[in-house]
């Protein structure tokens, strides 16, 4: 009896760990350019991450971390969730209405705009 509970707890920890990694990745996609202002080499990590985040949103795809988290939630014994990470965890907090394709495009565009501004500031300040 103890072993199945222990295994379920491990799956829950893994699912929660993936959730935290996913949240950190989303934050890095949106605002990682701010780190580039301090350490320029971070752009080598941030630009591909931002491009991936924008593609996920604009193309209507799901990040591979979403089904992985759901897999561990199912193994743990819970039902997981439908849709993507942003749709499930972030949108209900930021936008209480239903998540639409238009909102997904707006979020992807917002990532582009925020990062263009940040990288524009970096380029402008580096010319001084």
Could you characterize the architecture of this molecule?
By secondary structure, the chain is an all-alpha fold. 80% of the residues lie in helices and 0% in strands.
Which structural class matches the secondary elements?
mainly alpha
How many helical stretches? 5
Mind summarizing the main beta sheet? none
Count of individual beta strands: 0
The helix-strand sequence is HHHHH
Average residue pLDDT? 85
Q: Hey, roughly how much beta strand do the residues contain?
A: under 5%
**So what's the overall shape?**
elongated
Distance between the termini: 67 Å
Question: SSE layout and pairings?
Answer:
Elements: H1 2-38, H2 43-59, H3 65-76, H4 85-94, H5 101-126
Structure in a nutshell:
By secondary structure, this protein is mostly helical. The chain is 80% helix and 0% strand.
Task: Provide the descriptors you would attach to this structure in a database record.
128 residues; 5 helices; mainly alpha; 0% strand
């Amino acid at each position: 009896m103890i072993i199945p509970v222990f295994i379920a707890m491990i799956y829950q920890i893994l699912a929660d760990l993936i959730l935290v990694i996913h949240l950190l990745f989303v934050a890095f996609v949106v605002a990682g350019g701010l780190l580039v202002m301090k350490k320029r080499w971070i752009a080598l990590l941030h630009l591909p991450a931002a491009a991936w985040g924008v593609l996920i949103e604009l193309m209507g795809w799901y990040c591979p971390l979403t089904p992985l988290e759901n897999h561990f939630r199912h193994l743990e014994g819970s039902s997981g969730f439908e849709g993507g990470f942003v749709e499930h965890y972030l949108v209900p907090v930021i936008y209480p209405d239903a998540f639409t394709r238009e909102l997904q495009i707006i979020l992807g565009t917002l990532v582009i705009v925020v990062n263009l501004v940040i990288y524009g500031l970096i380029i402008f300040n580096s010319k001084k």
